[in-house]
Amino acid sequence: QVQLVESGGGLVQPGGSLRLSCTASGITFRNYVLNWYRKAPGKQGELVALDWPEGDRNYVDFVRGRFIISRDDAKNMGYLQMNSLKPGDTAVYYCHAMGSHIGILGSDFWGQGTQVTVGS
Fold first, then answer.
1. At 52, phi and psi to the nearest 5?
2. pLDDT tens for residues 90-114?
3. 65 partner at 20 to 30 Å CA-CA among 16, 74, 79, 84?
């Protein structure tokens, strides 16, 4: 069965860094677009970053210049390097994979989320 598992969250002081990992099983990761989403209580969920199999990367304004999305398809893993963290980055972060090839278009899978808390 398909499974995505996030890890790497935790408590960090403002200005600190964390690297989130997304480990996929049951799919060939290189055939999927990798997204990172975040959701804080009482706030709408938001897309954080997107990594295309072709190599293009997209970021929301909130994180551009601070976060780096990447992937290692040989390991079926995705990453989100988060630098210069701010209290507003506090949220549960979710890995999301979307099928990008014919035969898997419309297929998508979500991880369980990992908590990131930025504060003293």
1. -85, 145
2. 999 999 999 998 888 889 999 999 9
3. 74
Is the pLDDT at 118 greater than 90? The verdict is yes
Radius of gyration of the chain (CA): 14
C-beta of residue 85 within 8 angstroms of C-beta of residue 12: yes
Average of per-residue pLDDT values in the chain: 96
Residue carrying structure tokens 């014919």: 102
Give the C-alpha separation, 87 to 101, whole Å.
38
Query: Strand, coil or helix: what is 87?
Result: helix
Closest CA to 81 of 14, 23, 22: 22
